[in-house]
Amino acid sequence: MVKFSEPDLDRTFAALADPTRRALLARLVSQDGASVSELAEPFPVSLPAILKHLNVLSDAGLITRQKTGRTVTCRLNAAPMADAMAWLDHYQQFWSAQLDRLAHFVEDDDLS
Amino acid sequence: MVKFSEPDLDRTFAALADPTRRALLARLVSQDGASVSELAEPFPVSLPAILKHLNVLSDAGLITRQKTGRTVTCRLNAAPMADAMAWLDHYQQFWSAQLDRLAHFVEDDDLS
User: Is residue A67 part of a domain?
Assistant: First the structure.
């Protein structure tokens, strides 16, 4: 039987699987505390679509939102990414081995 | 304008967002070259469901499949995970800073 219950990891990876959501997180790196309308500004999608993406990021714990008057500001919360990175780290030895084999193949090809 | 086209990264993160798919990859670490029926054995889901998960992993380039007679064997291909790890690595400084602040908070709390 295998381990099945890591819903936090499911939510983190699912949240990161969309380019708009990754770009929203990237914008928060340079503009932490930006308002929703500031965040939405460069995206060629509707504000409701951005709000849905922000909900997904918030549900995954990757952003926090704060309402002050009529303005909602967002802050990056990178902590859930640590578990995703730790999961991927278990596989690093395998892709390193694959890249080594590829490098040897290219070297052998250069010599022939 | 923001960068939108990283479909490989979308597929990698989406493939990793499911616990059965992560568990299938984990089984391939210890049983590389296992047949589909061997892989499916410990999972409490139907074989067609496992085949769908294997299709998602294959589309993301995370496994390769080979047919010999009536047997399909699977191999782990961790290489696409390297890009996912590189993406997450950009955020490491932010979660490290958050964990540091949390550690200070706990220390301060211990002293009070």
Answer: yes
